[in-house]
Design a protein that fits this description.
The chain is mainly alpha-helical. 35% of the residues lie in helices and 6% in strands.
Length: 146
């Protein structure tokens, strides 16, 4: 499982350090994004530096998938979408996850989506994705009361 570590100076540079919001808060992800926002660098280390011990009561299991999704999405919309190169972009994956990603975006960011890309022939054959259902048009007959 990938993990990361940092020097104490990096930790002290990030304002408020870890967000100690208690159970259900992905404080390591929030810290990681703050580090990147400050121009922090990353470096890959291929050696095993730590061995995790499974604990079914670990706080990590209290973090909901939706919370992580929203944290990632907010980071993307605030920091990536503000870059000029991202005035238009494509979403790779026209399946459930790609469509969910699109629907989760703010309306202004949705307008920047140029296309979906996929390799699945069934998805490509659909030609387009219509994220919102068309309004139903009812055909109600008019009868004479005479």
């Amino acid at each position: 499982m990938p993990t990361w570590f940092c020097h104490r100076n990096v930790f002290e540079r990030v304002e408020m350090g870890f967000h100690e919001g208690g159970a259900g808060v992905p404080e390591d992800l929030i810290f990681f994004y703050k580090h990147l926002n400050l121009g922090g660098m990353l470096q890959r280390v291929d050696n095993s530096l730590m061995v995790y011990r499974y604990n079914p009561n670990a706080t990590t299991f209290s973090i909901k998938e939706e919370t992580i999704w929203e944290t990632r999405l907010n980071q993307f919309q605030q920091d990536i979408m503000s870059l000029p190169a991202w005035s238009r972009f494509s979403i790779y994956g026209a399946g459930k996850l790609g469509r969910r990603f699109f629907r989760s975006l703010r309306a202004d960011v949705q307008n920047q989506v140029q296309q979906f890309c996929d390799i699945d022939p069934k998805k490509v054959q659909q030609k387009r994705y219509e994220p919102y259902p068309k309004p139903k048009k009812f055909k109600i007959p008019i009868c004479s009361t005479l």
